[in-house]
């Protein structure tokens, strides 16, 4: 902390609820209805990796959601299950079917001990468990089912943000996930190496995220990777960045994965990718928004 500013580590899900994580371990709740007003201070510093601080306290670019220096990025990836670099992990893993709205779905894996934390972190609107077993069996099942169902390994946040604002009701969401679950169970062979789990119902994150308060996405805070042109990747992808001295103020509507949905004073509903805040010091703002907001061009999607 310096001069009333706290260095942000981004959005985390703790006990099934979203929080700001600050350097040193302090957290602040991100509850729907809360007023947020902050000013970006100083330089963006690498947050380190795997709970270890960056040895160099390296300054990192404002743009982009990674926010790590090359050395810490390599360390983080070296111990990543998602990157297939932790193949000897002895834990039990679960295979899940996650739905993000519309036609967006994926099959993935997570350590059983983590519960639904991974699904919350990804912003999954609803999901169902498919199976459980050792890492390599879970990984093979993920690949087999993903190919059979024709779903991608990864879904860009650009697509997730648009899909989650026009959702069917609870019954419609449950029906879509159950349909996908039945299709996955009909794929032959994968149950031979993994314990297939019976259908245990659909787990719905809409109430947890607060998505019933979100009706649209008018813009994305911080601009896009293409810079100030309002293009497609910038308008929805959130690949730009924050800037020292910039301010943001609004009412928090919902939090899905790392995304904060806010309503600004002028009525616009915008998204801040919380990963863009990681590494910056945030101080109390004056209740205004001066950070750039890229307009979402709905007609292009």
Could you characterize what this model shows?
- With about 300 residues, this protein is an alpha+beta fold.
- It folds into 2 domains: about 5-80 and about 210-225 and about 240-295, no CATH class; about 95-205, no CATH class.
- It is about 20% helix and about 30% strand.
- It has helices at about 70-80, 115-120, 135-150, 155-165, 170-185, 205-210, 230-235; strands at about 5-15, 15-20, 25-30, 35-40, 95-100, 105-110, 125-135, 195, 205, 220, 245-255, 260-265, 270-275, 280-285, 295.
- The strands form 2 sheets. A 10-stranded mixed beta sheet has the order 3-2-1-14-4-11-12-13-10-15.
- Strand 1 (about 5-15) and strand 2 (about 15-20) form a beta hairpin.
- The protein starts with 5 loop residues before the first strand and ends in a 6-residue tail after the last strand.
- This is DUF2797 domain-containing protein.
- It comes from Streptomyces rubrolavendulae.
- Pfam families: DUF2797 (PF10977).
């Amino acid at each position: 902390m310096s001069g009333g500013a706290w260095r942000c580590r981004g959005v985390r899900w703790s006990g099934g609820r979203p929080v700001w994580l600050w350097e040193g371990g302090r957290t602040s709740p991100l509850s729907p209805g809360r007023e947020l007003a902050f000013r970006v201070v100083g330089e963006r510093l690498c947050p380190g990796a795997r709970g270890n601080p960056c040895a160099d306290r390296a300054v990192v670019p404002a743009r982009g959601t990674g926010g790590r220096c090359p050395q810490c990025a390599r360390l983080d990836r070296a111990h990543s299950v998602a990157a297939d670099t932790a193949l000897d992990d002895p834990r039990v893993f679960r295979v899940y079917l996650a739905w993000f709205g519309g036609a967006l779905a994926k099959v993935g894996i997570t350590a059983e001990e983590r519960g639904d934390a991974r699904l919350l972190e990804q912003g999954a609107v609803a999901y169902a468990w498919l199976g459980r077993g050792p890492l390599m069996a879970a990984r093979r099942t993920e690949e087999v089912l993903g190919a059979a169902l024709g779903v991608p390994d990864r879904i860009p946040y650009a697509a997730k943000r648009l899909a989650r604002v026009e959702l069917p009701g609870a019954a419609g969401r449950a029906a879509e996930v159950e349909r996908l679950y039945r299709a996955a169970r009909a794929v032959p062979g994968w149950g031979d190496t993994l314990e297939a789990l019976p259908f245990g119902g659909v787990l719905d994150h809409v109430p947890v995220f607060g998505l019933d308060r979100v009706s649209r996405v008018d813009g994305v805070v911080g601009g896009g990777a293409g810079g100030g042109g309002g293009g497609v990747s910038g308008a929805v992808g959130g690949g730009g960045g924050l800037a020292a001295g910039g301010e943001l103020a609004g009412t928090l509507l919902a939090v899905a994965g790392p995304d904060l949905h806010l309503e600004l004073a002028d009525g616009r509903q915008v998204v801040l990718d919380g990963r863009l805040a990681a590494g910056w010091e945030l101080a109390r703002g004056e209740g205004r928004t001066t950070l750039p907001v890229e307009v979402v061009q709905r007609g292009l999607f």
